[in-house]
Amino acid sequence: MDFDPNCVFCQKTETDYITENTLAASFLDLYPVSKGHTLIVPKRHVRQIWSLTEDERHAIFELVEKNKAILDQKYHPDGYNIAINSGAAAGQSVFHCHVHLIPRYWNEEPRRKPVPGQFLVPPERPQFKGMD
């Protein structure tokens, strides 16, 4: 299935996009971990990264680089997290493959600062309510 009418990412349109190419698109996360938190997705409805074609993987990571350049110019972050949650046990809550590009800043609130080797999200994100 190339499109899932019940998928929030499949419902995105060109007006939502920051960047796009023929196989992928990017847009801002609705529950950002930090200022500029961007999602990069395949345009085709694919649940997991493991099901992407090689061309889709290349298209997605082309947009990771393009969005990094945009975020560097607009926000001047001090670093980045690039994360892919694959499966519910890994924290995936929208089952349309997506890459998180998360700008990080030294002046972030302490509870949001990353810990080496760990992908942290703020507790106000809906899927993490009640876990703090």
TrEMBL record:
<dbReference type="Pfam" id="PF01230">
    <property type="entry name" value="HIT"/>
</dbReference>
<dbReference type="GO" id="GO:0003824">
    <property type="term" value="F:catalytic activity"/>
</dbReference>
<dbReference type="InterPro" id="IPR036265">
    <property type="entry name" value="HIT-like_sf"/>
</dbReference>
<dbReference type="InterPro" id="IPR001310">
    <property type="entry name" value="Histidine_triad_HIT"/>
</dbReference>
<feature type="active site" description="Tele-AMP-histidine intermediate">
    <location>
        <position position="98"/>
    </location>
</feature>
<dbReference type="InterPro" id="IPR011146">
    <property type="entry name" value="HIT-like"/>
</dbReference>
<feature type="short sequence motif" description="Histidine triad motif">
    <location>
        <begin position="96"/>
        <end position="100"/>
    </location>
</feature>
<dbReference type="InterPro" id="IPR052908">
    <property type="entry name" value="AP-4-A_phosphorylase"/>
</dbReference>
<protein>
    <submittedName>
        <fullName>HIT family protein</fullName>
    </submittedName>
</protein>
<feature type="domain" description="HIT">
    <location>
        <begin position="5"/>
        <end position="111"/>
    </location>
</feature>
